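Hey, can you fold this one?
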Amino acid sequence: LLVAQPAALLGGMGRASAPSLPLIPVLIALAGALCTALAYVSVRQLGRSEHPLVIVFYFPLVAVPLSLPLVALDPVMPTPVELLWLVGVGLFTQLGQVWLTRGLTALPAAKATAISYAQVVFAGLWGWLIFQEGIDGWTLLGAALVLLATLLSLSGRSEAGGRSASPG
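Sure. Predicted structure:
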């Protein structure tokens, strides 16, 4: 919330260099972050009894039927070049999911995903460099809290009885 600075949180006073963000999209983003954390913890728990490829298989098995109604509302046929890009994105997403799942089954979720918090830093830097967005004290405080939480999650004691690096 400190980094996003939604208008409702600040009473309409946002960053000096950019307008405040609307509250609803910020809350949706926070809900997405919470769901992502729950998914990571679930994958970690499932990794104790299931093979990583079985876990990865269930993601599209759930996601495709849930997304089909939205696609049916406004279907768009991709061009051949777009189709090639879509296949590439799908392939690399699948490979990334397999390796993320292997990582989550080998390590505690906090340790396996800690590097993903660096995206907050990169988003801030790209916003500053490319879009000339200002970085104010609230953003710095929010980034510092994210960094502190990451360091705390990495410094916690390791899980007792954790699995070895080879989940098979």
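Confidence is low (pLDDT under 50) at residues 159-168. Let me know if you want another pass with a different chain boundary.
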